[in-house]
Amino acid sequence: MTADEGRLNSSEFSYLTDLRHLQKIPCHSTRVALWNCMRVNPIQPRRFQRKFSFVSYPTMVACSLAIGFALLIAAQLVATPDFQSAIYGLAIMSTSIGIWTVVTLLQKLVQTEANALHLPMALARDENLFSYFIKYSDSLLDISYIPDPVFRQAAINQLESIYKLLLGLGQGTLVFDNTESWRLIYEQLLVSKPVYRYRSVAWIKDEQYWQDEPGRQSLQLNLNLARSGKVSIDRICIIHDVCWLHSGSILSPILRSWIEKQAQAGVVIKIIRESALSQETDLVCDFGIYGDHVIGHQITEEHLGNSRFVLQFDFDAVAVAESKWKRLQSYAVEVDKLSENPP
Q1: Angle at Cα 219 formed by Cα 214 and Cα 224, nearest 5°?
Q2: What does the alpha-carbon distance between residue 94 and residue 115 come to, in Å, rounded to a whole number?
Q3: What 3-state class would DSSP assign to 145?
Q4: What is the pLDDT along the chain (343 residues), one digit of tens a residue?
Q5: Is 179 buried (19+), middle (13-18) or exposed (0-12) by CB count in 10 A?
Q6: Are residues 299 and 251 in the same domain?
Q7: How far is the C-alpha of 35 from the C-alpha of 69, rounded, in Å?
Q8: Mind giving me the DSSP string for 80-101?
Q9: Is 155 domain-assigned?
Q10: Strand order in the sheet with 268-273
């Protein structure tokens, strides 16, 4: 046995030994058949051995009851009443310990079974999620059939990443790493029935904001919804100083056209110069409040040159965003007052 093999548990070492013999078989089809047998009939993992810890409970019960009965018999053979009373007391105590142990064991077994059944019973009400519960359980079982230590460690690492993703989903958070998938869910949200109002904060750093094809499509959807009256749209534009011309008194023509087009369609739109928020930098961000139950925001990683889009179906997160919205209102200037009083 090598030094590395010495660090393996008996199950892993036996598996590696069988695998080495398997690799020596010249016939490929025979190797495949034997490999499938090893997968379907793996060596029982060590956690199965923990079930034998319950042996201590029956032993305690048997000993306690046996001692109790033995003391009762001894009490009948002892003539002195004082000794009989003492022995009866010990017998009752020993029997009580045995009964208490039985009750404790039953409670643990019932609790274990209840915990095991709680999850599938709770999910059974949701047909879609329950089908995934079955699929995930089957996949985990298949993974457990492969005892190779390298595979198991890699699988556990990937399962940890999947768990973190599911943890976020369980908290009502969706994360999108590309614009295309984000635009799709963005449009689905805007046309969904619960969204009667859309409050948007657009952080505009240059003239190319929403000027690509996906951006133009999203803008057109905004215009259509505003004209139809199906969704009330309010937008605050935080505009970087580089987008202002002639010493900062006139907005660039491209952005002005983009803003006026929305105002003419019925979007309530206001302007803030980014430098006006120098004392409240936490307000300089992209976010949108959909109805009263969803907040979406964009996270830009300048050093990596990419952005992530996050949706939170969470009332507490919406309350925080609404607080920011109210603070931004105090800095915002209406579009029709833009030429009279530049921000």
Answers
A1: 125
A2: 32
A3: coil
A4: 444 444 444 444 454 445 555 555 555 555 555 555 554 444 444 333 334 344 455 665 566 666 666 666 766 666 566 666 666 666 677 667 767 776 777 667 666 655 666 777 778 888 888 888 889 989 999 999 888 889 999 999 999 999 999 999 999 999 988 777 888 899 999 999 899 999 999 999 888 888 888 888 889 999 999 999 999 999 999 998 888 776 556 788 888 889 989 999 999 999 999 989 999 999 999 999 999 999 999 887 665 567 789 999 999 999 999 999 999 999 998 876 554 444 4
A5: middle
A6: yes
A7: 55
A8: -HHHHHHHHHHHHHHHHHHHHH
A9: no
A10: 173-176, 306-312, 294-301, 287-290, 197-204, 232-239, 268-273, 333-334
Single pTM value for the model: 0.66
> Which residue has tokens 């002005």?
256
314 and 213 belong to one structural domain: yes
Judgement on whether residues 111 and 20 belong to the same structural domain of the protein: no
Neighbours of 217 (CB within 10 A): 13
Please report whether residue 108 resides in a domain: yes
Q: Is residue 76 part of a domain?
A: yes
198 lies in the same domain as 314 = yes
Element (H, E) at 31: helix 28-40
- The residue type of 56 is S
Same domain, 210 and 315: yes
Q: How many domains, the chain?
A: 3
The answer on 72 and 37 residing in a single domain is no
- 56 and 11 within one domain: no
Token code pair at residue 150: 């390298």
Domain interval for residue 91: 50-126
Instruction: Verify that 188 and 324 share a domain, yes or no.
Output: yes
